[in-house]
């Protein structure tokens, strides 16, 4: 079964990619989508068998991979609760995206290639989440990066799509460089890339650190001699750098909004279930290593809190419907990183699980809106769509109440986001450290902003007077069932996934559910203490949600003229947020322009003047000079050749006479 789960998407990729032109677009769609539905069903069976049924963890061998000296890495599938949770998330969302794309991409002439890329993306993510060692993890990690490049730049004739694909690829290479160094460091420290060996050694090291024994110098990095403690902190920070790139954390977040240049189903797949969750998964999988460095965990909290706040502020003023949801993804990933940094790994994966449902719902709902209004994405040119596309409207409402965490505090009544996001906020308060308190404050503020920009999207898109042209409004239509049915399924998860699974992910069934797949130090009581936070703490996310909703209602329903007036009154702040804190401009100034100037100098002076000038071009120029002079001796006139022969004969006779004379 597990071989089928992992390799059926690869089979779909090969069929659509190699034979798409032969079998046609419809066959490519049905084959890849059908295989993904099978994989999704098998993933749920695995989930109930392993996580809910107490099946325990085990390894499924595939084949021999690397065996060189002391380095041994078999290709095997590690199956435990963390794995099957990710299988459910990845394959469920991917299957629904495949089905949705049949309707959304109906008019695209390159559908076989698109569906092949979707299946390749899914296969790469499955390789990542089922990895049994760091080499296999890195293989899936880079495979996801490649597939994202292909999907973001799918419409390769658009310069903006090509630029976005390159940006995503390059920014992720920065993080992946740190990730690779971190893997090298793990191998140096533990002598293996196998998770079982690494985790066993890390468990023994925890006890040594508790006794104050950090050992002698074990590693040198950038001229620094590091003992066990320093080495583990360095390794964890390098691994974190990789996670920051994949999961779009500040300052390696700049690729994520630009990824909206790809087709909308791609946005749903990247932002909900695959690429951006890879960093969260990696940190959770390597929790035994990160528990060895309290410094690294503090940095994780800080990065997550700053990202949650930053992305929420930028989302306040964006006008592209997909970019608003993209910055929401960036912000929610910040919540997950805060949970990881506090050692509340269950809450991080719980929010990853619920977030996949409502974020995929929002993206696919946005795609349904774009499909209805003739590919328009600017919310300022929408409005008044509520009665024209009512099914899409209510699906977007469900996604919004799940994202903003609508529910009744201290009860079991609430949407998926209410349970998972509130658990992270309460955990940040219960963590009882200065950095966690800082994160708690920023997360509550980010919750206010999240509620505001989410309801702003609803009000600008569906309420008020139509702002589109009469021709566009005349052609507005509801999406076909092939696009709506995936929305209905995701809506069910967005409403009920939190209520159904809370006790398993972060509640009383925690130990029986996770079965050791996540590791937390014995003295970390956050799993117990977050249940007993003060009432005002438990109610703070709800209050934040209400405040954001009321402000959005005041601005975009009762007084729609106020946002424009406020923007004019605070031009500097508005421009700062609209330009995303000027991160792109800063990077352009610090890295892009100097690199281009250096490249131009090396091209003109180094390559052109020095290498070519004194190398191939210089040699060929000298040869041409010599030959141009020599060729002048060849005039083509017979009397010139006769005269030359006469001079030669005279010279020869003279030489013979002088030679004979002497």
Characterization of this structure:
By secondary structure, this protein is mainly alpha-helical. 73% of the residues lie in helices and 4% in strands. Strand 1 and strand 2 (71-79) form a beta hairpin. Helix 3 packs antiparallel against helix 20 and helix 17 (416-430) runs parallel beside helix 20. The N and C termini lie far apart (105 Å). The model has no long low-confidence stretch (mean pLDDT 90).
Task: Give a brief rundown of this model.
By secondary structure, the protein is mainly alpha-helical. About 75% of the residues lie in helices and about 5% in strands.
Question: What descriptive keywords fit this protein?
Answer:
662 residues, mainly alpha, two-stranded antiparallel sheet, two-stranded antiparallel ribbon, 4% strand, globular
Structural class by secondary-structure content: mainly alpha
Strands across the major sheet, in which order? 1-2
Could you tell me the number of beta strands? 4
- Mean pLDDT across every amino acid position: 90
Count of helices?
28
Tell me, briefly, the overall form.
globular
Largest sheet: 2 strands, antiparallel
Helix content: over 70%
């Amino acid at each position: 079964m597990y071989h089928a789960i992992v390799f059926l998407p690869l089979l779909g990729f090969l069929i659509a990619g190699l034979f798409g032109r032969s079998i046609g677009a419809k066959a490519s769609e049905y084959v890849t989508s059908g295989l993904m539905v099978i994989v999704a069903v098998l993933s749920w069976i695995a989930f109930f068998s392993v996580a809910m049924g107490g099946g325990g963890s085990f390894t499924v061998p595939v084949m021999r991979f690397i065996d060189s000296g002391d380095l041994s890495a078999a290709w095997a599938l590690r199956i435990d609760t963390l794995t099957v949770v990710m299988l459910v998330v990845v394959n469920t969302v991917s299957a629904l995206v495949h089905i949705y794309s049949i309707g959304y991409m109906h008019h695209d002439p390159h559908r076989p290639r698109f569906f092949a890329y979707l299946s390749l993306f899914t296969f790469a993510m499955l390789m990542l989440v089922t990895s049994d060692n760091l080499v296999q993890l890195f293989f899936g990690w880079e495979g996801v990066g490649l597939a994202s490049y292909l999907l973001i730049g799918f419409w390769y004739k658009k310069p903006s799509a090509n630029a976005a694909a390159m940006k995503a690829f390059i920014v992720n290479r920065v993080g992946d460089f740190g990730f690779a160094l971190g893997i090298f460091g793990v191998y140096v420290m533990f002598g293996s890339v196998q998770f079982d060996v690494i985790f066993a050694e890390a468990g023994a090291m925890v006890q040594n650190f508790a006794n104050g024994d950090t050992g002698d110098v074990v590693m040198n990095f950038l001229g620094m001699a590091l003992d066990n403690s320093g080495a583990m902190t360095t390794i964890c920070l390098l691994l974190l750098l990789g996670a920051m790139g994949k999961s779009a954390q500040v300052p390696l977040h700049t690729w994520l909004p630009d990824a909206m240049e790809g087709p909308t189903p791609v946005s749903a797949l990247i932002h909900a279930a695959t690429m951006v969750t890879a960093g969260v998964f990696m940190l959770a999988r390597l929790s035994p290593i990160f528990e060895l460095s309290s410094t690294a965990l503090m940095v994780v909290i800080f990065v997550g809190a700053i990202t949650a706040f930053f992305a929420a502020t930028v989302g306040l003023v964006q006008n592209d419907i997909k970019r608003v949801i993209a910055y929401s993804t960036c912000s929610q990933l910040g919540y997950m990183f805060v949970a990881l940094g506090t050692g509340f790994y269950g809450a991080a994966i719980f929010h990853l699980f619920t977030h996949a449902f409502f974020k995929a719902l929002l993206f696919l709902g946005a795609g349904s809106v774009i499909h209805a209004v003739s590919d328009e994405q600017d919310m300022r040119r929408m409005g008044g769509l509520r009665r024209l596309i009512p099914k899409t409207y209510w699906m977007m409402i469900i996604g919004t109440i799940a994202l903003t965490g609508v529910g009744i505090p201290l009860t079991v009544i609430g949407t998926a986001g209410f349970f998972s996001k509130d658990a992270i906020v309460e955990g940040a308060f219960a963590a009882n450290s200065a950095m966690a308190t800082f994160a708690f404050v920023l997360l509550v503020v980010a919750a206010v902003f999240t509620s505001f920009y989410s309801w702003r999207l609803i009000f600008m898109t569906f309420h008020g007077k139509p702002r589109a042209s009469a021709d566009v409004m005349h052609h507005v239509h509801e999406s076909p069932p092939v696009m709506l049915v995936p929305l209905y399924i995701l809506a069910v998860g967005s409403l009920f996934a939190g209520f159904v699974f809370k006790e398993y992910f972060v509640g009383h069934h925690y130990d029986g559910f996770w079965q050791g797949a996540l590791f937390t130090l014995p003295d970390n009581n956050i799993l117990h203490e977050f249940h007993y936070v003060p009432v005002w703490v438990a109610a703070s996310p709800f209050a934040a949600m209400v405040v954001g909703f009321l402000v959005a209602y005041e601005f975009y329903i009762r007084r729609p003229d106020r946002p424009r007036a406020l923007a004019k009154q605070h031009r500097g702040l508005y421009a700062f947020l609209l330009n995303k804190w000027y991160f792109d401009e800063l990077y352009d100034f610090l890295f892009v322009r100097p690199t281009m100037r250096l490249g131009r100098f090396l091209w003109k002076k180094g390559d052109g003047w020095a290498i070519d000038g004194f190398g191939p071009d210089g040699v060929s120029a000298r040869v041409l000079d010599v030959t141009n002079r020599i060729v002048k001796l060849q005039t083509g006139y017979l009397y010139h050749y006769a005269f030359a022969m006469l001079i030669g004969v005279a010279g020869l006779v003279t030489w013979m006479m002088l030679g004979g004379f002497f």
